[in-house]
Amino acid sequence: MTPLLFLGVVAAGRDLPGDGPAFAAVRAPDLQAICAEVDPAAAETLEGISDWAQLQNAVLCAIAVKTDVLPIRLGSLFSSPDALRGHLVARGPELKSAMAEIAGRCQYDLCAEQADPQPDRPTEPPRTGAAFLTDRRRRRDARQTRAMETQRFLGSLVVTGGAHSAASRSNPRPARGRLLCHSLLVARDDVPALLSAMDSAAKPAAALGLRVCMTGPMPPFAFSSRTETCHA
């Protein structure tokens, strides 16, 4: 039998999407495990692990649009639906407690990046004498001013996001090219207010040559590190 990759947990009785990447739901009395059939040999390559991660992200994000879903740290394999169902029953109290911590909440990611990475330079800068030094000083001062304005702007985005979320967490190593990657744990009822506030807060971005985006809803990946055992 093909092993099952344990992706996440949803409360029993919740509607699940019928389109998108293929997945299965293994049901227990109060919970259902979201899983997918995988080739265990994929765990031996970075490409295989990346495929698993993309599958988990696609499946759980589709579910998170409508209901709460607890993500499971990637790599938990089970030999059969019965094995996974038995795990749900045995770990039920712990999993339900973890579900209660994220009840009615989802994650949104706030990101900012350079819209135009090219610096603003004169077409033919002076090359000698006092004019050259003056131009170099002007460009240096302009870069410093812009850098300070950018940092203030990014800080204001974080403050605004934090004011409309239950918790927040910054990625200290954002993806290449990004200046900010900040995760927000948001009550679903507060999402419209969050998006409206962030839309207003992001208005100065264009003048600074920046692009701001909000991504969500998604499972609280940044706020859950749930690790489950393997049974494959």
TrEMBL record:
Compartmental location: Gas vesicle
Keyword line: Gas vesicle
GO cellular component, one term: gas vesicle
Pfam annotation, one family: GvpL_GvpF
NAD is among the record's keywords: no
Chain segments carrying region Disordered: 114-143
GO annotation, biological process: gas vesicle organization
Lineage: superkingdom: Bacteria
UniProt entry tagged with the keyword Cell wall biogenesis/degradation: no
UniProt record similarity statement: Belongs to the gas vesicle GvpF/GvpL family.
Protein name according to UniProt: Gas vesicle protein
